[in-house]
């Protein structure tokens, strides 16, 4: 009998060979000496914590959950998961009011969208920023993403929902909080592109925030609740309505596919493969020759692609890059894959601001040196960070595609 | 996804093969399950240091004729010298500065301070023509306070055994003290980053200049040049006595830089490097492989005309050993091993170990076999191959580089 195979824990820390490669690729370590690093915080610390939980170190909160340690690990150790699970299991610290505000993208989003003009103006005011900085510990250098007056969902219901049944094929769209509350245009672009290639777009029966910010801020029970609601809706869409689910955000997609089972114990085996990024969905159709794109005649443009951390973990940067390369006159520069430093809500916290900017510095320098008109990326928080830290606008590959295609021409090709 | 060639494994062998093919105008993807063994590099590339019977080798070009026909070098045959030179050229052209010659081995200094034979050495490091060169030299051995991956006592002992006199000093700078707040992260790569920031290097050099007065040689750990080799050359230029950079315990700063440099060159040439992904399945038939599937890409296959298995040995999970067999987890290719486990090990840990010669069986063109059938379009290169003990013979890097180039050239035809 091979006894070894029966001695592997859920998060496989025993597979660690102590090679220390993870510590080389942790973006936090070089800039924050208070963080014990992925090897110590992950597999090494896990040995101690399994003996006695009091060995847990609150400094694990400095982990960005970027998963770059996992991508680098030659032994497939789920280092990032070990760290996040340890926080879930052992942390005694209760989330602060600030953490709850940052984590509850859904509730805050709903309130803020309703009063968008007031909220947008207010949070941009210097005295308000000062109060948020000193009382809430939300760094004053941060600019909150603006809230849209009309959410994506209400736009969709009013303007697009009825027409969707007319298309021969169908998908459900997990829009996420950012598209819904802050940037409905990206959602509209997804609908535009999918409709052009003959796909009707539908909302899920119920959609909650994917929960990534809840997980990182320690609100695990709420994250689990929302994960169950999302997975049930996804099940209904995939299994009953036969509609695969697409999303635009690399982090939402990654959370639903991998963090649900790994961190929240919400099983998704039966539907995991049917949740993917829109760019991958479209790439597959193009490769199989099932759809074609017709592009408009546009001016040459030079664009830099930034690979978000969770995109790197998914390994799906390829699809967005290849899709962008199909656009004539678009000259794509692929930036070295590295963390931008924002880590979702991480970079908004006052105590993390210098770390956050320190991590992103070499990326910002690379962008500034690339001689491009704008930057492309699949993550909304990377977009905020790059826009706050460089003079460049950041667009989602789907929005770039939506601008580049000749909608009527594409529709004709896919009739 | 369609490629001309899919390479499984992104270490020295996979990258070398990928660079060669990509620069020849074909489209390649490399799938790499995590970072490679270059992160543990000594800073040198061995070609052949010893014959399997233990006879030391000083001229690899001559000695190679004495190898058994099962050795990968025997399959390269009279192209050995050609590919040894090509390998050196490829490294240099990729921005990995190396020195050395396949006609005669030189000596590198190991992390334990001993002189070991080698072929090519990164320009960071000094090589010796003979281990006796240190005799009578006054060496200042420098460490950074709190850096535990550099064993100064061992190194000093070895230097003294070689006939040198040695003094150890530790240098503290406030920038390193900040790093020490997290003792587990006081590691070579992090120190190298600090060294490259602000004016730390200048201050460090000034301290060295002052402390090294009256010495013949100053020896420092390899904590320079994570981003570029500029740091090392500045250091060497500014001191008026020779600086010996000594490799540390992993991670290896010059090794990381080499990996990143090679990956950059591969990507600049248009190659796709898929890091953190694992091949789980292959579509095979009629003595060919048509496509492979990976964890990340799920149902989207990586199709290619050719496949190259560069997945490494046991350490890199290119080979798996169970109690009764050794197998290749990618294609389940035929592996040469002895089913009698009692013959795998030699109880003397420093002796040659038989298990290290196990690996994927290949034909004379390095094509793999599955159930005895040659796979026309699948090649194996580097440490996944059978027929050599890289540690005992000192030929691991050479096998990786030479088989990579040999196979790349055969694919191009």
Automatic annotation (TrEMBL), chain A:
State the InterPro entries in the record.
4Fe4S_Fe-S-bd, 4Fe4S_Fe_S_CS, Cys_rich_dom, G3P_DH_GlpC_su, Helical_ferredxn
- Name any Gene Ontology BP term: anaerobic respiration
**Does the record bear Iron in its keywords?**
yes
Q: According to the lineage, what is the superkingdom? A: Bacteria
Q: Which SUPFAM superfamilies match?
A: alpha-helical ferredoxin
Q: Which UniProt keywords apply?
A: 4Fe-4S, Iron, Iron-sulfur, Metal-binding, Repeat
Q: Which terms in the GO cellular component ontology are assigned?
A: glycerol-3-phosphate dehydrogenase (FAD) complex; membrane
Where in the numbering of this chain does the 4Fe-4S ferredoxin-type domain appear? 52-82
GO MF assignments: 4 iron, 4 sulfur cluster binding; metal ion binding; oxidoreductase activity
**Keyword RNA-binding in annotation:** no
Tell me the Pfam families matching this sequence. Answer: CCG, Fer4_8
Which segment of the chain is annotated as a signal peptide? none
Record's protein name: sn-glycerol-3-phosphate dehydrogenase subunit C
From TrEMBL, chain B:
As one GO molecular function, the record gives:
glycerol-3-phosphate dehydrogenase (quinone) activity
List residues traversing the bilayer: none
Q: Which Pfam families match?
A: FAD_binding_2
Q: Which InterPro entries match?
A: FAD-dep_OxRdtase_2_FAD-bd, FAD/NAD-bd_sf, G3P_DH_GlpB_su
Q: Which Gene Ontology cellular component terms are annotated?
A: glycerol-3-phosphate dehydrogenase (FAD) complex
User: Is the keyword Electron transport in the record?
Assistant: no
Q: Which domain of life is it from?
A: Bacteria
FAD-dependent oxidoreductase 2 FAD-binding domain location is: 4-399
Task: Enumerate the UniProt keywords alphabetically.
Answer: Flavoprotein, FMN, Oxidoreductase
* PANTHER family xref list: 4,4'-DIAPONEUROSPORENE OXYGENASE, PHYTOENE DESATURASE
UniProt record similarity statement? Belongs to the carotenoid/retinoid oxidoreductase family.
Please give the name of this protein. Glycerol-3-phosphate dehydrogenase subunit B
Whose protein is this, by species? Barnesiella viscericola DSM 18177
